[in-house]
Amino acid sequence: MAVCIAVIAKENYPLYIQSITTENELKFHYTVHTSLDVVDEKISAMGKALVDQRELYLGLLYPTEDYKVYGYVTNSKVKFVMVADSSNTALRDNEIHSMFQKLHNSYIDVMCNPFYNPGDCIHSRAFDNMVTSMMMQVC
Amino acid sequence: EQEKGLGALEGVGFRVGQGLSERLTKETPSFKDELDVLKFLCKDLWVTVFKKQVDNLRTNHQGTYMLQDDHFLLLSQLSNGKQYLEEAPKFLAFTCGLVKGALSNLGFDSTVTAEVLVMPCSKFQVVIQKS
User: What stretches pass through the bilayer (chain A) (predicted)?
Assistant: First the structure.
């Protein structure tokens, strides 16, 4: 199951970061931060190679001993990072893909909210609910 | 007084452009370069907002683009003579902001100006800032 979900702005600061437990939260923040390097690497590789490099979903960024980290970047260079528990091997790639799609849809709704200034931290309750349901769902 | 009003309109257009570009680029593959982004503006964005594509896109390949719409939706209800030529730019302020906001969300800072020489044809000039 997803243990931590983060939305990172194009300038690489977090717009939203939520972990499933409050202990070890700092560790997840750190993991997300280090995964940004891998994301940037993949994005710049995309710019050079011309073969099928039109995907937004970046796939598995890197595995650690307990966790796997997945990435997704939008056309506006906003990055979504998801940290998932390695012990749950039933989590397949296309499930992660669909979770990112849901995240993207909710992010678009936040963007279209006229009371939200792009670049601010995301405080939307609907977004929170969606993220919480995603973290609970794949148990 | 007029300047402030037009500025406010452009600001609203900017915010709408940001949200709209986010929604419209959800499924599109990532853009290769600046020209790709402008083409997206001329086709997908323009069709969504104005029900038609931009009629002509010109560029000097150095960051300046000219979008020409021969039958601009917001001017189509006004008469085609010279009568309202002076008032026409007021109707273009929102659209300038829209283009600016969409470009900004996709990573390009720009200045957008518009002019109307013959109703209802409008021309939007986009200058992409080099960072």
Answer: none
